[in-house]
Design a protein that fits this description.
single chain, 37% helix
Length: 378
């Protein structure tokens, strides 16, 4: 039996049995992470993990490749090999080839892994975030209180004891959101410290004693610039962290959303957070401005993001501006992957953009109809 194909090799086309293999793998890695078993592979394995191992093994055997001998070996593959490697059964072009399933430093499922889901639906982690926000909205009872609580979550992925005594701390908000926080998982502690990224504010880890972002470090944002000092919290036992699903699907996009809202204020636009809009979308209007919807997301995989946008916005007739970070837009092929994954109905109406381009889209002298024509032929 041959070895697994080298990275970048083309594998035979998938069968009906393995066409959704990668979805089961993503689900299994999420479950293993929830049980803190990506570091210590103690028995019994969760059912999802055993099933993923069985399916990858069968997939490899069917294609004449040496299968993983154990779950730890499969996890090693997920750390070392690209997520789009043929051994994982990923269909053509749903994700960028440089993505991994598990981060080799953080030893947690990557944001790509957590974004993977079938046919534009939310995966396990995103669904957990959606359920948490829906429950929060129910507890809040009013749109204004929900807006304040959601903003708190987005800007406070980590809460220290000192934070709770700082000026401006709202006991009302904290008592409403407290159940969405949890004690610091052992896997996030490093030498009895919690490192927090100086750029995104999310948990971070390092392989050595370098306490600034660089090639040998990991932060949950995954794309922050190198050379920024980590914030070190020396009493991690006194810290609480937002549950990971909300850190990844809400807090990681908070800077992008805030940049978009700041730009709307600058150009004099009125906006409000829509009820029952999942992670959170805004309706924008104003004198001399178009009425449209805005969704600000920072996601690693543009094709998967486009699939979610189709699901969320296929039934609305309003233009939708999907605001992403400038550095994402500048990635080679990012826009093409997003546009290529949109349905025919959404092309030209769901538009990928950045915060600094919002005014151009919202002013009537820049007709969206021109972009619609371009998108229809993409």
């Amino acid at each position: 039996m041959s070895s697994p194909p080298p990275p970048g090799a083309d594998g035979p086309s998938g069968t009906d049995q393995d066409k959704d293999l990668f979805l089961g793998l993503a689900d299994a890695l999420t479950v293993l992470s929830e049980h803190n078993k990506l570091r210590s592979f103690s028995l019994p394995y969760p059912r999802e993990a055993q099933l993923a191992l069985d399916r990858v093994t069968l997939h490899c055997v069917n294609h004449g490749w040496a299968p993983p001998k154990s779950l730890p070996e499969l996890m090693s593959w997920c750390t070392r090999r690209p997520a789009a490697d043929p051994v994982f059964g990923v269909p053509p072009a749903p994700m960028t080839y440089d993505a991994r399933w598990i981060d080799p430093v953080g030893l947690v499922p990557t944001r790509t892994c957590l974004e993977v889901a079938p046919l534009g639906q939310p995966g396990r982690a995103e669904q957990d975030a959606l359920d948490a926000l829906a429950g929060l909205a129910h507890r809040c009872g009013s749109a204004d209180r929900y807006r304040r609580c959601r903003k708190f979550l987005a800007h406070h992925p980590v809460v220290t004891q000192e934070d709770r005594f700082a000026p401006g701390w709202s006991a009302v908000v904290w008592n409403t959101v407290r159940t969405l926080y949890e004690p610091l998982p052992e896997g996030l502690m490093e030498r009895k410290l919690l490192a927090v990224c100086g750029t995104c504010g999310l948990p971070a880890r390092t392989r050595d004693d370098e306490w600034e972002s660089g090639p040998g470090t990991w932060c949950e944002g995954e794309v922050c610039p190198h050379g920024v000092r980590f914030r070190l919290l020396r009493r991690p036992g006194h810290c609480l962290v937002l549950r990971r699903s909300l850190r990844v699907f809400l807090a990681a996009s908070s800077r992008t959303e805030q940049e978009a809202l700041d730009e709307l204020v600058r150009i004099g636009a009125d906006y409000h957070l829509l009820e029952n809009s999942g992670i959170g979308a805004y309706r924008v209007a104003g004198s001399g401005l178009r009425t449209c919807l805005i969704q600000a997301w920072d996601r690693r995989q543009p094709a998967l993001m486009a699939g979610r946008a189709v699901t969320l916005f296929s039934h609305t007739t309003e233009p939708v501006l999907m605001v992403v970070p400038r550095r994402a837009m500048e990635q080679n092929g990012y826009r093409a992957l997003f546009d290529g994954a949109l349905s025919r109905e959404c092309r030209g109406r769901v538009i990928l953009t950045t915060a600094d381009e919002l005014e151009r889209h919202l002013r009537p002298h820049d007709p969206l109809s021109n972009e619609k024509g371009e998108g229809a032929h993409a």
